[in-house]
Specification:
By secondary structure, the protein is an alpha/beta fold. It folds into two domains: about 10-215 and about 340-400, Crotonobetainyl-coa:carnitine coa-transferase, domain 1 (Rossmann fold), CATH 3.40.50.10540; about 240-325, formyl-coa transferase, domain 3, CATH 3.30.1540.10. It has helices at about 20-25, 60-65, 80-90, 105-110, 115-120, 145-150, 175-200, 210-215, 220-225, 260-270, 285-290, 290-300, 305-315, 325-330, 335-340, 380-385, 390-400, and strands at about 10-15, 30-35, 70-75, 95-100, 125-130, 200-205, 240-245, 250-255, 320, 340-345, 350-355. A hairpin with a 3-residue loop joins strand 10 (about 340-345) and strand 11. Helix 1 packs across helix 7 (about 175-200). The longest helix has 24 residues, at about 175-200.
Length: about 400
């Protein structure tokens, strides 16, 4: 059965996470995605890994293989006139162009909606950049750490009140890029629907900084509402809301700030005498006296195993949660039952498990149609077969570094 987006044609000019993830979400739903990479070099994700056996190889990067499954791949230097001409021919027959090209580079090579929209008036072009296409920071370069800091998350993340000397932290990996990609994909599909209704495409400007800043929950409202500045170093007013280590070495997240949850936890612990102290009488007092309460809770938790404590808390409707490791996720019976992890067999990298789709369609199911392309794998199919370039012309373009 055809995927939900099987009639959608997408061209992606992307590196690392943001644009590749946006187009991956569409490719996984059946869209045809043609990924354009730099000749001889390819997407920077090819250099990031992880790599099987720890040996770097441009065709074996786990990051690249995950982000680019279900895509066709060609090489094209759009900074060359011949390369831009071929891009224009592709765009003339496509619905969507998604990219994360640096704005000054967009200007240099002529990658503009004014230009491409004239070729295809129904084109939806999505530009995912660090700070957006307008404003004083438009032309600044930025990596993952830069955007995570600029978006306001780092100041909220780190060791907390126990170690105020430690610096703010970002999360692992390319999360700012992924968030830019998610926002880009949703915005793109909205514009595709508008193009179907109105017959006209449009240009979408996605700022990764703003994608991160939009997810800071209510931290902006702490000041106008309460005259407080949200910070990772602030003392939590309600407790327990902490992770603690169990005797089997695993960690469990304790959350029982509602009074009925706390009473159930006290009952689970055997109603120890200390729980009746006035300093622990309600959730505000437990927050004020957390340093004392923490000692008692750590002693109890350290005598339990993660799974046993979790099950006992669950039976009493206390919202504890095991802190899952990567191994826990891979071995999760729940995720196995849902078929979340899938094996992708790549002709160079081999067969390994990767995350699949975090969603289920009842009528147009997600499908793994092909592994990520090797560099330039579909040049002949797309540039030769679809655009009609002869073998001699392809050979010439390859010799001159255009493809």
């Amino acid at each position: 059965m055809a995927g939900a987006l099987s009639s959608l044609k997408v061209v992606e000019i992307g590196e690392l996470a943001s644009a590749p993830y946006a187009s991956k979400l569409m490719a996984d739903m059946g869209a045809e995605v043609i990924k354009i990479e730099r000749p001889g070099v390819g997407d920077r994700a090819r250099t990031r890994g992880p790599f099987p056996g720890g040996t770097p190889h441009p065709e074996k990067s786990g990051l690249f293989l995950y982000l680019n499954a279900n895509k066709l791949g060609i090489t094209l230097d759009i900074a060359r006139p011949e390369g831009m001409e071929l891009l224009e021919r592709l765009v003339a027959e496509t619905d969507v162009l998604i990219h994360n090209v640096w704005p000054p580079e967009m200007d240099r090579v002529g990658l503009s909606f004014d230009r491409l929209g004239k070729i295809n008036p129904r084109l939806v072009m999505t530009s995912i950049t660090p700070y957006g296409l307008t404003g004083p920071k438009r032309n600044l370069r930025a990596e993952e750490l830069t955007i995570w800091s600029a978006g306001g998350v780092c100041v909220l993340n780190g060791a907390g009140p126990e170690h105020p000397e430690l610096p703010p932290l970002k999360t692992f990996g390319n999360q700012a890029g992924y968030q830019g990609g998610v926002h880009g994909a949703v915005a793109t599909m909205g514009a595709v629907l508008a193009a179907m209704r109105d017959g006209e495409g449009q240009h979408i400007d996605v700022s990764c900084q703003e994608a991160i800043a939009s997810q800071l929950e209510m931290t902006f409202e702490y000041w106008p509402y309460m005259k407080m500045i949200a910070t990772r170093l602030g003392k939590k007013p309600l407790q327990p809301v902490e992770s603690m280590q169990c005797k089997d070495g695993g960690w469990i997240y304790l959350c029982c700030i509602e009074e009925h949850q706390w009473k159930a936890f006290v009952d689970l612990m055997g109603n120890p005498e200390w729980a009746g102290e006035e300093i622990f009488a309600d959730r505000l007092k437990r927050g004020e006296n957390w340093e004392a309460l923490k000692i008692f809770l750590e002693e109890y938790v350290s005598q339990q195993t993660v799974l046993d404590l979790y099950k006992k808390a669950q039976a009493r409707r206390i919202p504890f949660a095991p802190v899952s490791t990567m191994g826990d996720l891979l071995n999760s019976e729940h995720l196995k039952a849902r078929g979340f992890f899938v094996e992708i067999a790549h002709p160079v990298a081999g067969a390994f498990k990767y995350p699949g789709a975090p969603l289920k369609y009842s009528a147009t199911p997600w499908e793994l149609r092909m592994p990520a392309p090797t560099l330039g794998q579909h040049n002949q199919e797309i540039l030769g077969g679809r655009l009609g370039l002869s073998a001699a012309r392809l050979g010439e373009l390859k010799r001159t570094g255009v493809i």
